[in-house]
Amino acid sequence: MASSSVVCLVFVLLQIAGIGSSQTPTVYILRVDSTSKPSVFPSHYHWYTAEFTEPTKILHVYDTAFHGFSALLTEAQAASALEHPAVLAVFPDRRRELHTTRSPQFIGLRNQEGLWSESDYGSDVIIGIFDTGIWPERRSFSDLNLGPVPERWRGICQTGAQFTRENCNRKIIGARFFSKGHEAGDGFAGVIGGINDTLEFKSPRDADGHGTHTASTAAGRYSFNASMEGFASGIAKGVAPKARLAVYKVCWRGAGCLDSDILAAFDAAVKDGVDVISISVGGGEGISSPYYLDPIAIGAYAAASRGIFVSSSAGNDGPNGMSVTNLAPWLTTVGAGTIDRNFPADVVLSDGRKFSGVSLYAGEPLNGKMYPLVYPGTSGMLSASLCMENSLDPNTIKGKIAICDRGSNPRVAKGLVVKKAGGIGMILANGISNGEGLVGDAQMIPSCSVGYRVGDEIKSYLASNPSATATINFGGTIIGVKPAPVVASFSARGPNGLNPQILKPDLIAPGVNILAAWTDAVGPTGLDSDTRRVEFNILSGTSMACPHVSGAAALLKSAHPDWSPAAIRSAMMTTASLVDNSLSPMWDESNQKPASPYDFGAGNLNLDLAMDPGLVYDLAEDDYANLLCSLGYSPKTIEVITHFPVHCPVRRKPLSENFNYPSITVSLPHNSTKKTFFRTVTNVGAEVNAIYQVRIEQPRGVNVNVNPRKLVFSEKVMKRRYSVSVYSESDNLWLGDSGAVFGSISWVDGKHVVRSPLLITQTDPL
User: Which of 408, 413, 538, 649 registers the highest number of CB atoms within 10 A of its CB?
Assistant: First the structure.
């Protein structure tokens, strides 16, 4: 795509977005070629305010992870800026959404052995958390017995509302907040152009809870006697308990996270000296922007190019296909799986039948007493079936257990609606899109979440027995659940909608019913009316899976300080597990069928093996540039991402399948039955003179040939290249519902199995 086409595309996007008018200023982000600054200006800020806008309109000036600025501009001013020869791109500020004790052991970590021991529990590795802030007083953030702050740290402890320098310590070594985009935008938390200080803190302090939860999941210290109102009791700890935390508050309670503020956080984190960035945030519209229009992708590229590992959540729009977000190949994109812990509850009907579900309700139980059942959806009103605010008639609900359909409003809000209407309890029934996937909630009334089939059975029973009654029994906490992991029904799925040759998500990690630290500003439901206060809370989402991988990266970085972000990701992916704890292939929770790489990527995180992967697939900046050339991006467009000029081959466009990614996706045109491409592996094992043999799992209807079939390494030869040729038995493969056939290529030496998932799809030629 030519650079002029980019300008046209961006202008079209501005018009489609409908943000502002020619007279109404709104926030735009401008990517500027920093080398074009005339020497007459002492700084880029002086240049921007002289040529583009007045000083009071500038919000952020970016000079590290991104070059340019964000400012309040009218649509006409934004369009005019695009005409400036130094401006590479302009895009409107976009709002992102948050993707919301036993999990460390479940991913292969053991006390005083293995990766925890080899990495000294992540000591001195710095994890930057981009989220809603932190509640620093929690035990999870104690600095007891930690050494001094690493000398390379260059960050600050920014003070503000109820947050002083004393709130930072040798554990929370830095904290910042970024609100200019929010304050200049369309307002949030009920205040236009400002922060409602009755709901939020204009400081790094966490008013939401999400940031405290993700920070302690990644790097929380040991906390004994931890639980959420008695559930999941035990020792709570993060994946990298000795890692240091740098907090970047970019998200605000009930208001999401704006790109302009996220970019400012990337800029600061790169300058501050973090080693890992964890960002459980993604697009909220189900649409992924091209990499050159995606500030998370652009900021993450700058971080990765400086050796910083960036972990991101895949999103919670599963099980729909092509729902995965955060697609850039320099990001590690994490889906969610279950762990072997559950919080069972049963719905018992008046005919004696018992149906299993889950619940985190910790209040007064029903003690077996039967109550009338009611399904508000029989009224024909969709809002009533969903138990939306002000949709329920108290005359119908009072004294009964209401059946509410999942969707539209938060699950915990439905319980509150039933409670306000006088209901005794709630059965929360999945819709067909959620299938059988269940997550627990700390509801304020006796409640049980059930799958789609069970919900249908209960509704059918009530329809034929209007006087039906029911009760709910609660089973506390059970561990050793089988099968686990299974792919969470909400976890976003592939294929990659932007670049199908790159498999996303990359892998899955624990993301269902995760216990971690919580803010003291709100109760466990996050609702204003929830007056309970807990030290720990149990949440589910790819937001919870992402910090598991962030903590894992900190451990691997500590154990292998010379590994690149790509090498760390490769170690996780090529050693990921494909089986559950009953040694059967992983299931998809939504349909109870075997899962595929579109669901789990390379598999479930297994740190026991990732510490010593044998071989890794490494990547350098030239590899990323060649990939972007293969996508048809022009040099100017690529420079928006890379910050340096790139010269794409004119005669022969690079083949995207040659990108040295740990997973392999091949797209065969319908008029072609063969494709050949290459990969390069680097020996990082203890055995320098290693010999690896290839093992191929052939996809159905496809022949795969690897050459050579043996890789011999030595002290002088640490890298080896091999070719993969894919032959289709016909030009019309039977791909099934998934649109792909699956196999794998593994390199084995008797100790290591270095496995790459292999996906074959077909496309119509242009």
Answer: 538
